[in-house]
Amino acid sequence: MENTPTVRSPAPTAPAAAAGGPGDLRRDGYARYRPEDLGLSLAAHAGDLAQLTAAYADLPADPYAPTTHRYRRYSHAVYLPWTRQLSFAPGAPDTTYGTVTEYWQDGHNPEYPDLRRRLPDIPTALQANALLLHLIHTDLAQVEWVADLRRVPLYVGVHLIKLAVTDRSQVAVSSPDCLHQDGGSRATFTFAHLVSCANVAGGENVIARPECAGNRPEEVPPEALHERFTLREPLDGYAVHDHRVSHYVAPVRLGADPGHGDRRILIIGLAPYAPRL
Question: Does domain 26-272 have CATH number 2.60.120.620?
Answer without folding.
Answer: yes
